[in-house]
């Protein structure tokens, strides 16, 4: 449908784009945008919008997961000191299912952060964040990757999906692969440039 409306360069569902972290400064809480759009955040992938939700934009310092990731990996605090463990336990306590990010217990939380540490170490060693295709060759496009919306003029806006990997990508300060989220109509011409990095890196 997008191609019929906007031509061959139109956004595609779950396509991979390459984002310059230096251009990222804002995010939209996934649940807020999903409520406004009437669908889940991942289902917004490739959707073209004309009305941009300026009122939902927030700065990174108000995002608890990003701030505890940077406190740990950038500032050298332990996960406990950064507030990550307490945050996760508080989310588990208020969850209707008693589960958050597949964690039920403190031990689950600690194991999850151990896994994130492995991802950080591997990404830092190779100097970039791996694409979903590198992690899972049979993965469809960039499904499950860091979800990035494109605002007016092509400004990349973090969606809130893939927080820990986004935090890593920002610290590595290197273009990173992302699953395309919703796209403001004025950003469609920018898409080809964001795709070209994928082609140069042989990761389409």
Which secondary-structure class do the elements indicate?
A: alpha/beta
Flag low-confidence runs. Answer: 198-204
Q: How would you spell out the order of helices and strands?
A: HEEHEEHHHHHEEHEH
* Oligomer type: single chain
Estimated radius of gyration: 17 Å
Main sheet specs: 5 strands, mixed
Proportion of beta-strand residues: 5-15%
Q: How far do the termini sit from each other?
A: 22 Å
- Helix share of residues? 40-55%
The overall pLDDT average reads: 92
Number of strands: 7
Q: What would the keywords be for this entry?
A:
204 residues; alpha/beta; 9 helices; 7 strands; 41% helix; disordered C terminus
Textual characterization of the structure:
The protein has 204 residues and is α/β, with parallel strands linked by helices. The chain has 9 helices and 7 strands; from the N terminus they run H-E-E-H-E-E-H-H-H-H-H-E-E-H-E-H. It has helices at residues 2-6, 30-37, 64-73, 79-82, 84-94, 106-126, 132-135, 163-172, 191-200, and strands spanning 16-19, 26-28, 48-49, 57-59, 147-150, 156-158, 176-184. A hairpin with a 5-residue loop joins strand 5 and strand 6. The longest helix has 21 residues, at 106-126. The chain is globular and about 50 Å long.
């Amino acid at each position: 449908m997008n191609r019929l409306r906007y031509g061959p360069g139109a956004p595609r569902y779950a396509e991979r784009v390459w984002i310059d972290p230096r251009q990222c400064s804002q995010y939209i809480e996934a649940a807020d945008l999903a409520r406004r759009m009437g669908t889940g955040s991942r289902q917004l992938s490739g959707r073209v919008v004309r009305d941009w939700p300026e009122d939902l934009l927030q700065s990174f310092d108000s995002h608890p997961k990003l701030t505890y990731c940077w406190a740990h990996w950038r500032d050298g605090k332990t996960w406990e000191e950064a507030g990550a463990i307490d945050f996760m336990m508080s989310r588990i306590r208020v969850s209707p299912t008693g589960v958050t990010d597949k964690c039920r217990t403190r031990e689950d939380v600690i194991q999850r952060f151990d896994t994130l540490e492995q991802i950080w170490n591997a990404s830092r060693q190779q100097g970039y964040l791996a694409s979903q295709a590198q992690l899972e060759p049979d993965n469809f496009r960039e499904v499950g990757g860091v979800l990035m919306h494109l605002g007016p003029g092509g400004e990349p806006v973090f969606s809130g999906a893939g927080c820990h990997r986004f935090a890593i990508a920002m610290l590595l300060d290197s273009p990173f692969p992302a699953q395309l989220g919703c796209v403001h109509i004025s950003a469609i011409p920018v898409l080809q440039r964001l795709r070209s990095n994928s082609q140069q890196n042989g990761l389409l």
